[in-house]
Amino acid sequence: MINSSTFSNKWAVLIIGLGFAQQIFAQSLAPNSTACGLNSTNGTYLVRAKYNDSAVLQCDCFGMHKPRIKWFLYEILSGGFLHIKQANSTVVERYVCTVEKGEMQNHTIINFRLDYTDWYSKYVFHSVFWGALLTSLIVCIVTFVVNIIWILTRESILWAERLSRVRKMVEALEKYRTRQMERIHENYQKKIQIVRDNYHQQIETIRVSYTAQSERFRDYRTAQMESMHSHLDSIRDNYYLQLQRVREHGSKRAEQLWESYEKQVNRMRAFSAQQRLKLMRQYKVKQRYLNKLLENFQDANNPEALRQHEEDVRVFK
C-alpha cells in the first residue's frame, strides 16, 4: 500500500467516490445488514486508457451500509474511484480492490493497460503514424528549403570573393604576360640591331676596301688599260659577291631571329590561353567576364599593337 504522503509524487491520483447510488446501495442484493460484496467478486477485469490521458478505475461494491474500501498500489482517498490523471507506462500495473465490512471481505483485480488504437487513427493530428509521416514530410521540406537557401546564400556571398580572386589572378597573369612580351620584343630588337650594325659595318668595310683597290690601280689605267679593266671587273665582281654574301647572311640571321621571336610569342600566347582556361574551369566563370576584365587592363600589347610592332621591327623580312 502507498500512503498519502507518497501519492503526490505519482502521476496518478486515487479518487474513491461513492459511485452511483444504485450500485453502492443496492439493498435488494444484500441479504442482511452486515453483508457486502463486489459486482465481480474475486474476479479480474481489464481497463484501458489512451496514452497521456486520464483514467478512472471503478470499484463496484454493494451492501446495506457503505463498506470500507481499500486500494493497493496507491493510497485510498475519500471517495469510491481510483483516478489516474496521466496514463503512461509507469502506471501500467495490476491493481487490487478490496472491500471490507465487519468480518466480510471481498476483492477484485483490475489490470490497467494503455490503449494504442488512437496511434493509427484516421485523424492526422490524433494519429501517431500519420503524424510521424506528416512530421517527416515537413522536416524533409524544411530541410530542403533550408539547404536551397544556404546554397544560394553561400553562392551569393562567396561569388564576390571568387570574382575578386579571379580578377587578381587575371591581373597578375596579364602583368606577367606583358613583361614577358616586352622582354621578347627587347631581345628581338637588340639582336636585330646587332645584325643591322654588323651588316652596315661589313658593307662599309667592303666599300672602303673596294675604293682603296680602285684608287690603287687608277694610276696604271693608261699604261695597262686592258689588264686594268679586267682587274677592276674582278674587283667589282668580288665586291658584289661579298655584298651578296653579307646580305644573305644578314637576311638568314634576321629570319632566324624572326622565327625565334614568333615561337616565343606563340608560346606566351598559348600559356596565357591555358591559364585563362584554367581560371574558367577552376572558378566557373564565363569567357565574357574574363574578356571584360581583360578590356579593363590597358594593355599596350594587344593583338593589333603586336602585329603593328612586329611589322615595324621586322626589318629584313
Automatic annotation (TrEMBL):
Protein keywords: Membrane, Signal, Transmembrane, Transmembrane helix
Q: For this UniProt entry, which residues form the secretion signal?
A: 1-26
Which ranges does the record mark as transmembrane?
A: 128-152
Has keyword Membrane?
A: yes
Q: Which InterPro entries is this protein grouped with? A: Ig-like_dom_sf
> How is this protein named in the record?
Ig-like domain-containing protein
Q: Which organism is it from?
A: Diploscapter pachys
